[in-house]
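Project outcomes to date are best conveyed with an example. Our students and postdoctoral researchers have been running inverse folding experiments weekly, and each run begins with a structure described purely in tokens. The record below, which covers 342 residues, was selected by the lab manager from last quarter's runs and is presented without edits.
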């Protein structure tokens, strides 16, 4: 289940300087410094031009300048979409256990699935000269992409496979979607609804839908997508079950984008006396513990979250220490866990 995409090459040039920003903005270096240190004293139009230039050239302010410039940091910056989702907590645990064993600490932040916030966090963290940076996913806004491409420190992009800047540790999400769709087709289902939550933000759920849709369309079937308006919690899954039963009366199975949604639907079905899988089959993604403690047990795709974190940390440390890696990309794969819900 490996990706065939080629790794993006890092640009390998010197980090942009204040002089580069000044040249791009057509102002003096002193003006750039004022924007960075005392923005209120700079005219708004000039400040906006300098800020646009900062984004364009990918400048990152060095917060360790001066007397601390020679200090070597022993922390790794880690950026994830959520600190309340057990998926990312398990990844963080894997990262932290290995980094601490090697004498490093993590500096942690979450984006709330907001790519602009991710860019702000990357800029802030890199300003403190971390030993390395771990970010979630391969999709960044243009400014963030430029900053990461200019970075001298090791960068690990985790959770998915594809065209990466440096190190890449994750799984093939379209193939995970295809795997579950093939399983549901094999069980005789021909009317399957894919349910996600804010798929534009949780884009890896969208990648799984792409794989799901590919399999269904190849079989000559429709692949409806129900995109709920709030990120996947139990209540959202319960609401989604009601929506599917009302809007897709012929549906015989629901392929949920994650186990939180699927578990919420299962619990709601139990309360309402809806028989699963007889009335409708339910499947998920992630392999969360709750899926094995609901009735019926959830059929899902299991992702090795702790292993992703541990492998990412091991490879980052190897890169910091100058040790060669056999590959810059690691496919951790996934497993189909068959329960009684589908």
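After processing, the design step wrote out the following sequence:
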């Amino acid at each position: 289940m490996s990706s065939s995409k080629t790794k993006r090459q890092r640009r390998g040039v010197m980090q942009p300087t204040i002089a580069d920003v000044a040249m791009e903005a057509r102002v003096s270096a002193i003006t750039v410094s004022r924007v960075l240190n005392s923005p209120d004293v700079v005219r708004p139009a000039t400040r906006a031009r300098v800020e646009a230039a900062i984004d364009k050239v990918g400048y990152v302010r060095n917060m360790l300048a001066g007397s601390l410039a020679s200090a070597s940091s022993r922390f790794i910056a880690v950026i994830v979409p959520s600190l309340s989702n057990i998926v990312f907590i398990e990844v963080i645990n894997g990262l932290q256990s290995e980094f601490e064993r090697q004498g490093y600490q993590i500096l942690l932040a979450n984006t709330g699935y907001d790519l602009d916030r991710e860019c702000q966090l990357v800029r802030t963290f890199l300003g403190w000269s971390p030993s390395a940076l771990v970010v979630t996913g391969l999709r960044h806004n243009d400014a963030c992409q430029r900053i990461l491409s200019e970075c001298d420190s090791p960068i690990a992009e985790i959770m998915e496979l594809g065209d990466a800047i440096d190190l890449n540790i994750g799984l093939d999400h379209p193939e995970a979607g295809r795997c579950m769709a093939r399983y549901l087709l094999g069980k005789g289902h021909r009317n399957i609804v894919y349910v996600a939550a804010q798929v534009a933000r949780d884009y890896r759920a969208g990648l799984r839908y792409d794989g799901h849709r590919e399999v269904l369309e190849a079989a000559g079937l429709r692949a409806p997508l129900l995109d709920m308006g709030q990120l996947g919690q139990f209540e959202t899954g319960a609401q989604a079950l009601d929506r599917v039963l009302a809007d897709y009366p012929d549906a015989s199975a629901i392929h949920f984008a994650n186990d939180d949604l699927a578990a919420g639907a299962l619990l709601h079905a139990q309360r309402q006396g809806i028989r699963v899988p007889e009335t409708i089959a339910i499947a998920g993604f992630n392999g969360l513990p709750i899926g094995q403690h609901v009735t019926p047990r959830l059929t899902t795709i299991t992702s090795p979250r702790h292993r992703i974190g541990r492998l990412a940390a091991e490879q980052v440390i190897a890169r910091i220490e100058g040790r060669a890696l056999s590959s810059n990309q690691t496919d951790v794969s996934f497993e189909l866990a068959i329960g009684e819900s589908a």
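Residues 1-12, 66-71 have pLDDT under 50 and may be disordered. DSSP finds eleven helices and twelve strands in the chain. The training component of this project remains on track.
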